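Sequence, structure tokens reproduced for reference:
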Amino acid sequence: MRRKIIAGAVATTLLVGVGGAASAAPKSKKPKAPKPHEVIVALPEGSATPNIANGVSVGAHVATYTASGTGPAAANTAAPAGTPERYIDFPGGKLPPGVTITEAQGINALKQVSANLEAVGLTPRDVISMRVYLANPPGSDSADFNGWNRAYRQFYANTDLTTGKPMEVPLGSAAPAEPMYVNPARPSRVALEVENLPVQGWLVEVEVVAAYPEK
């Protein structure tokens, strides 16, 4: 499978293999449907470090895997069952400076998503679409989208598409540093605030679609 990245509808097209560095290709005059074994990722124009894709086109012969909704693992056994703190997997269940509970659960959940993918021969670099559900942290009137976005950048959309080099990303209030998992993939994505999630204490649930590389 070839993954084609298009920045804007009329722009330079970048062709990359899954996890590979980008290289310039001729300008495209108009959008084209993907070839049978091709994934086309359409990105916002004017940025080498976009967060998400505008959308993704998938060729007719691309095999995909849809993961069920996945939340964080109950890693902090010292915290009471059913509490958000139960799903913190930092050492000792302690949040690093500035890290929110949603950010911590987001990191935990994305690790579980990675394990789900690896069990079927895929990696986070193969993810083409993502749907995220966020519940309000205790005492808050709204979901913590900023905390979620920091967690997301630890695993996705954290390379410069022009140079192929990793970006530095923040963890809480710490100075930006290399991400936990270097990944050029920019999936299409939606994040929704919901009233509650199926497991008591969860603040984050993630479902993804990944494309199998062509062999």
Summary: Residues 101-118 form the longest helix (18 residues).
